């Protein structure tokens, strides 16, 4: 029997009245498929909060997409009782998002904890994103408990990776716990270690309440559920609270803890982690990183670290069937309720019709949004090539912010600046040359290189964000046979020689294909896109030039030769029905044609041109 | 194979097919579904076996087809169609001349006995250059045939070989002469765009056709039809896919040379020396007149109703033997569909198509694109230019969408 505390002991760890020294707040840092969720599930089971029957694999990951991809997008917190010796403790496990796009959410989750369990696959070793989150946890002075998971796997090399971890975080390789989330081996010991090593939270119970929001989730029945960590003071049911960034006030309709189903409590005290329900319907009214305080006895200073989410990657999203536009609008309005980082505004494209320009935290965020729109709202969508945000300074010193190539200004431009990132790539050392070549081609600057172990290398680069949002990740994966991992963090801006390349069809600009690229790459983009369109656009009854242009200068040209013959040579009695049906099909097809000047282009051609090398769904799994 | 269930009542033509019938000619198409060899490019409904069993053999075919003529006559009467003499008869295939001339004569006689032949009726049979003799042609002429259309296809042996045509090109002048001696008008069918055919080879075929001084020429672009042996050879890379640009060049060459030689186009693929040499039977298709198609897989049209017979000769024969019309399926055209057909068929003709007041506004754009001739367009008539003849599908879509 695992040590689940008795009722008498449990009475000491009731929410709202648990002494801080009996609390342990920790998170799990792990790469996507290193078994975090399985390990978390095992903890839920061993601590008795979920019985085996109710166990759903990866209990904490709610959304289907998360469960299918095996990744966590939205973090949550679960309170688990655990007994060590004669004392009952309340453990709060805070699940962290596992992807670079959500690093701000990760930072808030980490800020809600005193300790972090670093989970690394014993067969694969640490990956770049995990490393980035680990460094963030170390900066936050969290106690790190290194764990090698999946030791049941035949390919596991716990000794090798224990050395690697010891090198990274200090300490001895023997400090690394060896567990298997799958079999449960070592998990009891891990829970004990958490109690032993993670420091209890510290706060002032008599101060005005200050609680940090580390997650905010929209629930269609209950409205927004806000997850908080109380730093000082106490929050109680029915009281009025204030969001310190906006000064908005709300009434606490419900307060409680997840174990793992939401359970109302008498409140939340110092160091405790739980949820709030105020009846708001939009996660924007309850933002991650904000500080919650009492209305009657408000704190004067907010907890640090709050930041508005900044969209970094933009893309146009269009319904393939134009009549789905209202459905797309409604779907975005709903999606926004659950995604404070999602921004969008209507956009019209000659080629693609009515749609929206969306801003995302990053590429995964983009993909997840698109997939949710397609799946949950049953929409067929096409997205334009993603781009980053550019600042264009004109010679008269005025500036223009460009989130869409079509907004790129004409006229005398003094300079253009683009966002850059610090990228960390972990890879087997065999692929160093390949990776360096890739980064160089994408205007990367090598910052440093370290060997994590004899055959694993960490490469640090500065790269323009615009160079990695297109296909960098896929290329990296395919050129390193899936072994390399990437993490990046926005590190600032740089001035670069960037130009807008336009694509012209018989002299008419096709908006969806304009791109902002480095001047050295403009020609390559022009040749690629004109060549692609030449293949995809059917011949017309006149010659159609396809040109790529920078400003008024043509840099590439292809020609679709005029179609000379379309008629079936014979048409007798037995051919007539067939011929009429063909005509009906042609007329139907013509309705779906987009007219660019005099050129008729099937929408499928635009879609194919946009998606043929942007489509990476299969390669990422 | 079991014959299809026999309907309790004979099949009735739908109401309305009689409306306006007296304004329309009645034609008869007789399909002969037999060949000695199946050509690689051919997707017509034809069979090479002499004995298909169950009354579907070549020997009994004429009798079976005559059975359908009797059933057709009854159906026309039941539908209240006025008695009309037949203006044109066309025997196609397959290779009609694979049957003995007296069998073809018997089928024609059945048509004449049933409905009567109009004065000056046009009666055509298709023929392979290697399947007829001088006596055959004389016998056909004596039986009332007025016209013969020879499947010459090419004058170039290599091209004929690619097409699986077995006749000796040297024999063509003979059969043309025999037909003329018998008093038959002569049409020659040629195909351009055969895989591997050079422009020069096509030019040789054009010259050979003109040297024979036929009354009428049909020139078709080769279409590689799905399911044919040729389609398989193209797919395997043994033959190149015919190229649309090459076909366009060859069409322009042929149309220009024919025209210079006195053969004006009267339909996209058809050229005649004089107006009276035009094939009236085919014009009836493009003008949506009435015709009854006799034989397996034959298509018919009566006043906006189209139907087609079962394809295989054996169930066809079974149905005739059971006293029912052998139709497979049909479609009753809506007014919009009839209008579509009026345009897509009528646009093919050199006499032009009176588009109607509602479409006149679309003509100037087609004129300025070089697809229609300017002068007739001013009178509301769509008449294709040479370029427009090659892009007739585009013109039709722009007139009907």
Report on the architecture of this protein.
The complex is a heterodimer of chains A (621) and B (401). In chain A, strand 4, helix 5 and strand 5 form a beta-alpha-beta unit. Chain A has 16 helices and 32 strands. In chain A, helix 13 crosses helix 15 (603-611). Chain A is an alpha+beta fold and 621 residues long. In chain A, the strands form six sheets. In chain A, strands 10-9-14-7-8-13-11-12 form an eight-stranded antiparallel sheet. A six-stranded mixed sheet of chain A has the order 2-3-1-4-5-6, with helices on both faces. Chain B is an alpha/beta fold and 401 residues long. Chain B has two domains: 21-286, TIM Barrel (Alpha-Beta Barrel); 335-401, no CATH class. Chain B has helices at residues 58-78, 101-115, 134-143, 157-162, 172-181, 199-211, 229-235, 244-260, 280-286, 313-321, 335-346, 363-368, 374-378, 386-390, 392-400; strands at residues 26-32, 86-93, 117-127, 147-153, 185-192, 216-221, 264-267, 270-272, 290-294, 299-302, 305-309, 327-332, 353-354, 381-382. Chain B has a nine-stranded mixed sheet with strand order 7-8-6-5-4-3-2-1-9, with helices on both faces. Chain B has a three-stranded antiparallel sheet with strand order 10-11-12, with no helix packed on it. In chain B, helix 2 (101-115) packs parallel to helix 3 (134-143), helix 3 packs parallel to helix 5 and helix 6 packs parallel to helix 8. The A-B interface holds A 541-542, 561, 563-574, 576-577, 579-580, 583-584, 586-587, 590-591 and B 29, 218-221, 223, 244-245, 247-249, 251, 268-269, 282, 285-286, 291, 293, 297-301, 306, 308, 331, 337, 340-341, 344-345, 348, 369, 371, 389-394, 396-397, 400-401.
């Amino acid at each position: 029997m695992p040590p689940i505390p008795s009722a008498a002991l449990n009475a000491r760890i009731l929410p709202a009245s648990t002494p801080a020294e009996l609390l342990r707040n920790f998170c799990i840092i792990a790469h996507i498929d290193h078994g975090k969720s399985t390990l978390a599930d095992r903890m839920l089971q061993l601590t008795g909060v979920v019985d085996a029957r109710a166990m759903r694999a990866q209990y904490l990951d709610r959304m289907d997409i998360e469960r299918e991809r095996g990744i966590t997008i939205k973090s949550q917190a679960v309170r688990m009782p655990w007994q060590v010796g004669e004392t009952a403790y309340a453990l709060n496990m805070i699940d962290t998002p596992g992807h670079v796009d959500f690093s701000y959410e990760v930072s808030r989750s980490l800020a809600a904890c005193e300790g972090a369990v670093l989970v690394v696959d014993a067969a694969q070793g640490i990956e770049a994103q995990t490393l980035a989150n680990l460094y963030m946890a170390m900066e936050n002075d969290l106690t790190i408990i290194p764990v090698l998971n999946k030791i049941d796997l035949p390919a596991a090399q716990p000794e090798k990776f224990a050395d690697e971890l010891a090198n990274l975080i200090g300490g001895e390789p023997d400090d690394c716990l060896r567990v298997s989330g799958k079999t449960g081996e070592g998990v009891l010991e891990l829970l004990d270690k958490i109690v032993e090593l993670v420091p209890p939270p510290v706060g002032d119970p008599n101060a005005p309440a200050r609680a940090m929001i580390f997650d905010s989730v929209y629930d269609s029945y209950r409205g927004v559920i806000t997850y908080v960590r109380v730093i000082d003071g106490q929050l109680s049911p029915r009281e009025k609270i204030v969001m310190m960034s906006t000064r908005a006030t709300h009434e606490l309709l419900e307060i409680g803890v997840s174990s793992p189903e939401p359970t109302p409590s008498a409140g939340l005290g110092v160091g405790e982690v739980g949820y709030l329900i105020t009846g708001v319907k939009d996660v924007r009214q309850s933002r991650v990183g904000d500080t919650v305080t009492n209305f009657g006895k408000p704190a004067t200073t907010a907890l640090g670290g709050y930041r508005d989410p900044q969209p970094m990657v933009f893309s146009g999203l269009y319904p393939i069937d134009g009549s789905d536009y209202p459905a797309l609008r409604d779907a975005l309005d709903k999606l926004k309720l659950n995604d404070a980082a999602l921004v969008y505004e209507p956009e019209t494209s000659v080629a693609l019709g009515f749609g929206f320009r969306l801003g995302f935290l990053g590429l995964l965020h983009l993909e997840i949004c698109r997939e949710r729109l397609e799946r949950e709202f049953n929409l067929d969508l096409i997205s334009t090539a993603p781009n980053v945000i550019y600042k264009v300074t004109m010679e008269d010193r005025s500036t223009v912010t460009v989130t869409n190539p079509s907004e790129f200004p004409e006229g005398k431009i003094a300079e253009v600046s683009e966002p850059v990132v610090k990228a960390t790539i972990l890879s087997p050392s065999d692929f160093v040359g390949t990776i360096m070549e890739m980064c160089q081609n994408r205007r990367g600057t090598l910052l440093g290189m370290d060997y994590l172990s004899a055959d694993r290398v960490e490469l640090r680069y500065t790269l323009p964000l615009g160079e990695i949002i297109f296909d960098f990740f896929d290329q990296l994966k395919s050129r390193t046979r899936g072994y390399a991992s990437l993490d990046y963090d926005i590190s600032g801006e740089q001035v670069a020689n960037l130009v807008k390349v336009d694509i012209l069809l018989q002299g008419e600009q096709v908006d969806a294909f304009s791109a902002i690229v480095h001047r050295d790459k403009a020609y390559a983009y022009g040749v690629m896109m004109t060549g692609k369109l030449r293949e995809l656009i059917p011949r017309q009854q006149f010659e159609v030039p396809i040109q790529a242009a920078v400003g008024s200068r043509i840099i590439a040209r292809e020609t679709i030769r005029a179609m000379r013959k379309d008629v079936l040579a014979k048409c007798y009695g037995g051919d007539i029905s067939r011929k009429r049906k063909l005509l009906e099909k042609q007329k139907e097809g013509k309705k779906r044609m987009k007219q660019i000047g005099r050129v008729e282009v099937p929408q499928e051609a635009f879609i194919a041109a946009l998606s043929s090398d942007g489509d990476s769904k299969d390669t990422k799994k | 194979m079991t014959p299809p269930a026999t309907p309790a009542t004979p099949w009735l033509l739908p109401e309305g097919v009689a409306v306006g019938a007296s304004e329309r000619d009645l034609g008869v198409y007789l399909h002969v579904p037999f060949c000695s060899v199946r050509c690689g490019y051919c997707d017509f409904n034809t069979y090479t076996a002499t004995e298909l069993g169950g009354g579907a053999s070549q020997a009994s075919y004429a009798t079976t087809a005559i059975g359908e003529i009797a059933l057709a006559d009854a159906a026309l009467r039941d539908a209240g169609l006025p008695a009309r003499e037949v203006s044109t008869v066309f025997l196609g295939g397959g290779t009609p001349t694979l049957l003995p001339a007296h069998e073809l004569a018997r089928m024609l006689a059945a048509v004449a006995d049933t409905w009567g032949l109009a004065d000056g009726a046009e009666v055509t049979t298709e023929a392979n250059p290697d399947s007829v003799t001088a006596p055959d042609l004389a016998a056909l002429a004596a039986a009332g045939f007025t016209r013969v259309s020879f499947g010459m296809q090419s004058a170039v042996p290599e091209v004929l070989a690619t097409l699986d045509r077995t006749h000796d090109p040297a024999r063509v002048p003979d059969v043309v002469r025999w037909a003329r001696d018998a008093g038959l008008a002569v049409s020659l069918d040629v195909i351009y765009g055969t895989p591997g055919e050079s422009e020069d080879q096509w030019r040789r075929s054009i010259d050979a056709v003109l040297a024979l001084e036929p009354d009428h020429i049909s020139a078709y672009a080769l279409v590689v039809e799905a399911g044919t042996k040729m389609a398989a050879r193209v797919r395997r890379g043994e033959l190149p896919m015919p190229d649309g640009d090459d076909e366009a060049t060859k069409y322009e060459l042929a149309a220009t040379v024919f025209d210079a030689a006195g053969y004006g186009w009267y339909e996209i693929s058809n050229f005649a020396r004089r107006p009276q040499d035009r094939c009236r039977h085919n014009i009836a298709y493009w003008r949506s007149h009435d015709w009854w198609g006799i034989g397996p897989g034959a298509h018919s049209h009566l006043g906006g109703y189209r139907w087609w017979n079962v394809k295989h000769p054996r169930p066809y024969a079974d149905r005739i033997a059971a006293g029912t019309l052998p139709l497979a399926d049909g479609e009753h055209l809506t007014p919009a569909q009839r209008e579509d057909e009026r345009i897509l068929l009528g646009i093919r003709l050199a006499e032009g198509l009176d588009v109607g007041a509602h479409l006149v506004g679309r003509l100037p754009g087609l004129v300025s694109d070089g697809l229609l001739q300017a002068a007739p367009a001013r009178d509301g008539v769509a008449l294709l230019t040479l370029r427009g003849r090659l892009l007739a599908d585009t013109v039709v879509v722009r007139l009907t969408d």
